[in-house]
Write a structure and sequence with these properties.
133 residues; 3 helices; Tetrahydropterin Synthase, Chain A
Length: 133
């Protein structure tokens, strides 16, 4: 089995609903995503997939949807305020934990027909969460 991993960096904000720790408040992160793709065979050029293709598919999606945005639960009461102020945000149907953000990126990669096996989101240099099937 062959594998490749692409790192993508982006900045985002979030908060967790019904949480008693510091993350209940709006705050931001300099995140790093690692996208791992696998294949049993290589293409005619000897690649699992060209790194530029991963970049053009996943990084472009992250830049358009997650980078420099508040990632919030769809039911977050702060959403109408952001909407009114025309601030950028991205909604997910659950708490925007590192685990759930990694899952959102993974699902987009699958939808884009990339041979993804794992997405890891580093929230800080020492804390990360991963999603795979």
């Amino acid at each position: 089995m062959f594998s490749v991993t692409k790192e993508i960096y982006f900045c985002y904000g979030h908060r967790l609903l019904n949480y008693q720790g510091k993350c209940r408040h709006l705050h931001g992160h300099n995140g790093k995503v690692e996208i791992e793709l696998v294949s049993e065979t290589l293409d005619p050029l000897g690649m699992v997939i060209d790194f530029d293709k991963i970049k053009s598919v996943i990084k472009d999606w992250i830049d358009r949807n997650l980078d420099h945005r508040m990632i919030l639960h769809a039911k977050d009461p702060f959403v109408p305020v952001l909407r009114k102020r025309k601030e950028p945000f991205f909604l997910i149907p659950c708490n925007p934990t590192a685990e759930n953000i990694a899952k959102s990126i993974y699902e987009y990669a699958v939808k884009s027909r990339l041979p993804v096996v794992k997405v890891t989101l580093w929230e800080t240099p020492s804390s990360f969460a991963a999603y795979s099937r």
